[in-house]
Design goal:
The complex is a heterodimer of chains A (about 300) and B (about 290).
Chain A lengths: L1 H10 L1 H10 L2 H32 L2 E2 L10 E2 L3 H9 L3 H31 L5 H13 L2 H12 L4 H5 L18 H26 L3 H9 L4 H12 L1 H17 L2 H7 L8 H10 L5 H27 L4
Antiparallel strand pairs in A: 1-2
Helix pairs in contact in A: 3-15, 4-15, 5-9, 5-12, 6-9, 7-13, 9-12, 10-11, 12-15, 14-15
Chain B lengths: L1 H36 L2 H7 L11 H9 L3 H31 L5 H13 L2 H14 L16 H25 L3 H9 L4 H12 L1 H17 L2 H6 L8 H11 L4 H21 L1 H10 L5
Helix pairs in contact in B: 1-13, 3-13, 4-7, 4-10, 5-7, 7-10, 10-14, 12-13
The chains are: A mainly alpha (about 300), B mainly alpha (about 290).
Amino acid sequence: MSTNTSTAVAETPQRRRRRGNSFTAKDRAVIGGLVGFPTALHILLVWIPAILTITLSFCEWDGIGGIADIKWVGFRNYTQIFTLYADFGPALRNNILWLLALALVATPLGVILAYFIDKELKGTKFYQTAFYLPMVLSLAVTGIVWDYIFRNNGFVNAMLGADHPGHTISWFGDPHKNIWVVLGIASWRHIGYIMLLYLAGLKSVDPSLREAAAIDGAKEFATFRKVIFPSLRPVNVIIIVVTVIESLRAFDLVYVINRGKNGLQVLAVAVYENILGESARIGWGAALATILFVLCIGPIMLYLYQTFKADK
Amino acid sequence: MVTGKSSKVGARIAATILFVFSLVWLFPIFWTLLQSLRPYGDVLKHGSVSWPQHLNLQNYWTALVQSEMWKFFINSVEVAVPAVFITLFLASMVAFVVSRYSFKFNIALLMIFTAGNLLPPQLIFIPIFRLYLNIWVPGWINENNVLYDTQLGLVLINVAVQVGFATFVLSNYLKTIPKEISESALVDGASVWQHYYRVMLPLLRPALASLGVLMTTWIYNDFFWSVVLLKTGAKRPITAALSNLQGEFFTDYNLLAAGAVLAFIPTLVVFFTLRKQFVAGLTIGSTKG
């Protein structure tokens, strides 16, 4: 956008001068207010807290005393988390599993379903609605809805004949099983989201691209891989970013199911536990949050690069 | 022709896969709906997987009126409506300036807003929590005189986070509106404020509608901020209150099912009536070339 304005302005110098002169003191104040107030709010409540958290991750603070009680301890919180904090290993492992499940199973499935739906077969509207629905449900409701399927006397156990007391399969209680069930539920939601984003991308593909490939006699899969997929680079980047960020942010679902314990530890819950939980240690919580942030930096930079490279 | 035949077979396979998947997708929601219509006693006697003997709306009545769930819906409205309006208003102002005037800081500013929206909420919640405990508010907002444990605090944080995304989307949208419209407004001698309020804001209406639908759903569905910034259970919006009701309804799962259905009905209504806007809201930001 600013590329457009600046070139337009450069072509017509008189207009630039006139516009430049037409800023009255009042106009300038209005522009300052229009930009200044929202920016101040955003920076004050998002960026400054983010910087403070990163700083706190190198400090020790009991949180009860004043700010004067904050002591600089260097990397001690980090070394303690790696060596002493028992939930860190499982939490990190689960976040990585989450990422792998969404990236290797849910996201490709969403893309494939979008591709099928783009063919506009009979009943397309119905299919779209079915896949979009989980997305409008909150994760809190999602947890409850799936509980009816996987609870001890729920649908799955009844189908397996395992719903009698003493013979039940504990899908949410067994720490070896529950993470897989949760990943399935997360995928249920993620697939529709990816499908929606990808479908919008597919609709924007120039039809002549496909026709040209078809005339060349390219097979359907080859057309997708060599022509359509590369032309959707912006959507592909967004899908990667959404997938990584969603898997790192995972909180609501495990919190609703069992407060993120017993096999369902994730980093976001670990942060929460160290700030508001019984074993509160602010330094550890801040360090965990910073680790989460470091893992997010890559996709955030990728997204910014993709989005703003044209404007530079 | 070989290709014609194989693509027909391909279409049939695609249709079959889509059909099976969509049934699997809908089943959990259908199942919860069925549970919510069955009395607990019926399930207790015959098991949760059994042919329903009675179907009625008793659970809904109990959840909404006896358990006073309606109060939590009001809480949700009190948070989501102001948060969405303020977010859209603030975001439209920034988007207007960065897309209509070329200042050096434009791109840097947009980057700050865009990246800010992508930060994990856990990264910002520790200082926010401390800050809220130390900000004074009048007694009629909170009898404890702090911003923590108030819906006002919830509105503020939702605005601060969402304004990032909204600014990004709206500035993308404004790029598609021809510059000539602004030029003619300037020739007519419009002030900056008139240019924004009279000329640009009306043109932004479709994008504001889409974004508004999407953000209402997001803020209504928010769980994390309500859990960490509210202490009093009675102040919680419905989405966060459900996890409390889960404990309260512990013995009556069918009642909880009715509660869950009640909680997602508003989002379903929004989705079915404003689906175009919902989808547009999600994709305005994502499909720009």
